[in-house]
Every structure is written in C-alpha cells, then in structure tokens.
Write a sequence for this structure.
C-alpha cells in the first residue's frame, strides 16, 4: 500500500477505530437518554423532560429552576438560533425550543459546568444583586466588574460587550447561569478589546461550552494578577498622554497639530528640530492602521489631521527607532544624495541598491518595487526616515521570481497603503506591488544589523535566479513555438491536449485529464470550476501545468489499479456510491458518514462534474487521510492538503514538458502526492 506522501498512517487504523467507538458511545448515550426521559415520545426533550434529566445527572440531584432550564435550552440551541437570525428568523423562538438529540451532550456539559461553579456564582449574586431580582442589570454588572478590576472603573463599552455577549437568553440582563459565561469572557478578553458582539452568533473555536461558560477557580489568582498588570499599564498610558497634552497641546484641542507634533519630536531629539518630511512620516506611521481602513481619503487629509492621544505611543516608538539609526542614514545620504535634495530619486536609490548587491545592477522591476513600497509619504522620493524601510525591503525580499511585481502607485500614501495590502485571491494581475514574502520589522532592526546580513554568496545567488528566469523564459517560448498553432499566445484545450499527449504514457491525454490540468492552471483566476477547466492556459502557468502532469503520470499505474476495482461501471470516473466504497476500504471497512463523503467529493472534484476522475483521485485520498488526521476538522484537513510539502521537490526529468524549471510552484490546492492503493 502506497500512502499519501505527507500523511503518517502507522496508527490510523487504531485512531479510526477509536473515532468509531466514540461515535457508538455517543449514539448509545443519546438512545439511553431518549428511552428514559423522552416520555412524550417526540424524539427530543421538552422543558419539563429536560428539567428532570438535568436533575438526575448531577450527583446531588440538583433540580434546576425555570431560569436555569431556559439557559440550558439556550446553550443547546445557540448555533441553531444564530443560523435562524442569519436567515431572518426569530432567534428567541429557537432558543426556547425542545433540545434535539444531537445537542444532548452540549446541554449536559453546560449544566455540569454551571453546577460546578454555582456556589461561587450564588455568593456573587448575594453581594451584587442588591434588589434581589435574581438577575444583574447593567449597573450591577458594572459594579461587579469594577470589583474584579481592582476597583478601577470599567468603561461602558466593556460592560456592554460582556453583557451583550453573555446574555444568551436575550433578555437584556445577566441571570445566574449566564454569570459564569460573563466571568469567563471578562478574564479571557484582551485588554482594550471594546468590540460589542451580537447576542446570538455562530459558535467558533474560541466560543465553546467548555472554554466560555466554565470559570476555573484555581486559575483566578493568575488572572487577577494579570488584570492588575493591565490596570497598571492603562494608568501609565493615561499619565503619559496627560503629560504630553499638558506640555505640547498649546491649542487645547486634545490632540497635536503639525506644529505641536514637530515641537514634541524636536524636544525628544534633544533640541534637533524635526524636518517637515520627518514629521509627515511620523504622522503616517503613527496612524497607519487608520490609513489602511480608509479613514483618510487623500494625503492632504492625513497630513492636515492632528495626531490623536491614542496614537502618541506609536508616534514615540517609530520616532525613537528612526533616531537610533539617524547617524547611519545621514552617512548614506551623504554618499548617494548627489544633488543635496535630502531625498533619493529612483536613480539614486538604484545606485545604492547596486552597491548593496555586490556591484550587480538590480532589475528595474526590483528597484520600482522597493521604491514604491518604501515611499510612505507618497512624494515620489525616498526621504531619510523612509530609507530604513527601503533597506529592510531589499534585504528581506523574496529571492524568487519578482517579475510580476510592477510599480504603478506613487505620489499618495493612501494609495501606497492600499498597494501594500495583499491583492484579492481572485485577482489575475495585481495593479500594485505585492507585499514581501516575509514580514518586515524595520523598527526593531538597526541599519548596522541590516548591513551585517551575510552577503558572501548573494551575487552568485542573484546570478542563479537570473539563470532560472532565463530557463523558464526559454521553456515558455519553446512550448509556444511548438504547440500554439492558433497563434493566440496561450494553449487552447486542443493544443494543451496535444502537448500533454506528446509526453504521456499509455495513450493520449483524456479530456478529463486535460480539463484537470487546465483547472489547476486557472484556479486562481477563474472561480467557476467548469469554466476554469475549459479555459486556455496562459504562458505563466506552463511550468505549473508541466509539474502537475509529471506528478500525475508517476502515480498513473496505481490510480488505474484503484479504478479497476471501484469503477464498477467503467465510466472512467467514481460517483458518490463508488467513492463511498473506496473510502470504506481505506477506513478499515468502517463506512464513512454521508457528510464525509460529500465533503471529499466537493473538495476533490477539481473540474466540477460531480464525480472523481482519475487525476482527481490523489487529492480525494489525500483529503480523506487529512480528515482522519485532524479528527474530522474539515478546515484543518483542507489546509493540510493545500500546504506545500516540507521536503525538497525532486528535479524534473529532462524531457519537455518535464523540463520545466524546477523552481516553479505547484498551483495552490493541487495535490501531487500518490493515492493509496486500496
């Protein structure tokens, strides 16, 4: 049996059996619960049946009151209520509905967790429920949170967030069972997180019964200490803002205008006056998050805007990092700013990059990419504070093919910010420079550290990259010259079929195989699977197409053997029933669920014909084993299959199309691992 390359399957049989055992136990638990407590015979537990069951499953036989039963109902029906609300329905009706069998486990977990902390919750209610209403309204909740916050008043936005997120019943107050969730949210939340969440929303990994509703008393000491630290930081931050405003906000606006910011920065620099470019740069860097979300529509709005108190810390941090490297920056400007303009134009930057590149001229596209992404002020030049980012981009940039990086944005920091953001996945040709492959942390790296990066082999590496580009270009030109009979500058379906057939084993490429290659080549540009499978393949995708085809050919014999066994009607494709039989065989004869088969079918059906064709079999089996490995987590399974293999790719054979340069990437989402022989 040959396995999918990246999946370790030594213990998979045991794990699948364990999963099957858990499913059987869960089914037994549901059946026993229904047999004993579903006295109405509805196949679910109504209000009183739920109360009787909850009473029985606690060791002390604690009988829940009406409010507690309603809360358990709401926790069990939480996800369904969220879906109902999304679709325009009435969430409250769903929250109060009978509890269905698939939610019994969730209901039991919620109730047991609440019972475990009931004594503590009752003590808190006795202290803060001063009107004995059996619930906490907003002022009472605020008082409780203030006590937990070491006496520091809690902002209204935080109280609203805890209230709206914990109020599972949706009645605008916190009942005893909801307090457990409120406390967990309060202790687990990040400082300064003021986002108000809806009362009903779909659960996610961070919001589960065990992680949200349960407060673990043993962890409270550390949490209290952490809250103290947060409070202390907030106090220091407030004092810093107050001191800054008292000294530098001469206009009394509660913010720093351009002149006031300039005076503040100059004072930090021991009296050396900050230039206009430097102040503008600090404005951009301190407010970059606001720039990215579109707060400023044009650069004049940004430069005219005062810096608000919440941005003072960011302003100081970027300014101090810049001042630490000012001496080195001045030395570089003395050498390359040949016209004394206090900024570097494109040609001056190119000279600097050439020297950093061991005398090898950087390509125009590379210069443009660094120039555009480092020009944070959008004035078409690299100023002194921007030089550090330019150097960081140059050294940290990906050494792969950067020919696709084009510079078309300049003269506006707002447009530059948009250009620096990753392009949408569906975009075929981004109009602005793509973000570098690795994050740049220039504020934490000095120029001396950047210059100390090992560059002994850099010139040789650059030449190697150039050779790869040349080989790639030659490969594309040769392919077009031989197979592009229509002269369109791309390969149509028939031309692609002829190219693949010329390098096929055991007969010409089938239509399904050609569609599969076309869909892989076009999947990032055309979202409709059927359209992607019939579209022409562009030159930039020839290498990826060749790699996918060669990987498929290597496993063709095994694929044929699997099809000979499970393609019982010899249609050349597996329908759902046939795929089910294959997955059952791989699953130690334990039948997979319908939903699992549907998921594998949907995600492996690359060409969109509702079946699994031969070239799609590798991905189908890879998805199945990844699903097993992730214990049924579909998103994790998809991510595992989409991730590139860790090991180095083997060099391709010399014959075309396998002669494609080895540096080319396989299309995202393509699986080249071999399928399992059943």
């Amino acid at each position: 049996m040959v396995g999918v390359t990246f999946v370790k399957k030594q213990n998979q049989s045991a794990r699948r059996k364990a999963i099957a055992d858990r499913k059987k136990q869960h089914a037994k638990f549901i059946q026993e619960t229904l047999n004993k407590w579903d006295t109405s015979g509805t196949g679910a537990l109504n209000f009183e049946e739920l109360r009787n069951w909850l009473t029985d499953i606690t060791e002390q036989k604690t009988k829940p009151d009406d409010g507690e039963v309603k809360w358990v109902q709401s926790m069990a029906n939480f996800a369904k209520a969220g879906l109902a609300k999304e679709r325009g329905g009435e969430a409250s009706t769903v929250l109060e509905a009978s509890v269905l069998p698939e939610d019994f486990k969730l209901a039991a977990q919620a109730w047991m967790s609440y019972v475990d902390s009931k004594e503590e919750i009752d003590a808190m209610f006795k202290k803060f429920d001063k009107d004995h209403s059996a619930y906490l309204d907003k002022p009472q909740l605020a008082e409780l949170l203030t006590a937990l916050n070491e006496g520091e008043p809690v902002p209204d936005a935080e109280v609203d967030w805890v209230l709206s997120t914990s109020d599972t019943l949706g009645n605008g107050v916190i009942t005893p069972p909801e307090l457990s969730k409120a406390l967990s949210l309060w202790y687990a939340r990040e400082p300064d997180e003021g986002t108000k969440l809806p009362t009903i929303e779909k659960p996610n990994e961070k919001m589960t019964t065990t992680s949200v509703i349960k407060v673990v008393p043993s962890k409270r000491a550390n949490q209290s200490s952490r809250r103290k630290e947060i409070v202390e930081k907030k106090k220091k931050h407030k004092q810093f803002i107050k001191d800054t405003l008292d000294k530098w906000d001469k206009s009394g606006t509660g913010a720093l205008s351009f002149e006031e910011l300039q005076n503040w920065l100059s004072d930090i620099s021991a009296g050396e006056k900050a230039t206009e470019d430097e102040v503008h740069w600090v404005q951009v860097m301190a407010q970059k998050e606001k720039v990215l979300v579109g707060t400023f529509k044009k650069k004049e709005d940004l430069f005219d805007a005062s810096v608000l108190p919440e941005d003072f810390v960011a302003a100081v941090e970027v300014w101090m990092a810049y001042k630490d490297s000012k001496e080195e920056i001045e030395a570089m400007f003395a050498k390359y700013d040949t016209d004394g303009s206090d900024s570097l134009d494109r040609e001056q930057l190119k000279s600097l990059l050439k020297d950093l590149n061991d005398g090898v001229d950087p390509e125009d596209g590379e210069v443009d990419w660094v120039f555009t992404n480092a020009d944070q002020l959008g004035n078409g030049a690299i100023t002194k504070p921007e030089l550090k980012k330019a150097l960081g981009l140059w050294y940290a940039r990906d050494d792969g093919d950067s020919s696709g990086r084009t510079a078309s944005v300049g003269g506006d920091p707002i447009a530059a910010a948009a250009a620096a953001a990753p392009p949408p996945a569906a975009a075929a040709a981004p109009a602005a420079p793509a973000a570098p492959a690795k994050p740049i942390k220039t504020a934490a790296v000095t120029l001396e550290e950047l210059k100390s990066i090992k560059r002994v082999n850099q010139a040789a590496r650059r030449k190697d990259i150039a050779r790869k580009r040349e080989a790639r270009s030659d490969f594309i030109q040769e392919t077009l010259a031989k197979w592009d009979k229509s002269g369109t500058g791309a390969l149509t379906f028939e031309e692609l079929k002829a190219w693949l057939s010329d390098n096929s084993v055991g007969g010409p490429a089938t239509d399904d195989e050609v569609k599969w290659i076309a869909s892989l080549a076009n999947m990032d540009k055309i979202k409709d699977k059927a359209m992607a499978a019939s579209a022409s393949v562009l030159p930039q995708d020839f290498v990826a197409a060749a790699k996918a085809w060669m990987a498929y050919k290597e496993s063709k014999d095994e694929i044929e053997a699997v099809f000979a066994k499970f393609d019982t009607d010899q249609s050349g494709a597996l329908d759902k029933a046939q795929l089910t039989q294959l997955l059952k065989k791989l699953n130690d004869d334990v039948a997979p669920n319908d939903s699992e088969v549907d998921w594998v079918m949907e995600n492996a059906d690359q060409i969109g014909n509702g079946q699994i064709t031969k070239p799609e079999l590798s991905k189908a089996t890879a998805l199945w084993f990844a699903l097993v490995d992730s214990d049924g987590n579909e998103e994790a399974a998809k991510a595992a299959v989409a991730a590139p293999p860790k090991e180095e790719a083997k060099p391709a054979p010399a014959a075309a199309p396998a002669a494609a340069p080895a540096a080319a990437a396989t299309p995202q989402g393509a699986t080249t691992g071999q399928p399992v022989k059943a």
About this structure: The mean pLDDT is 75. The CA atoms of residues 477 and 539 lie 9 Å apart.
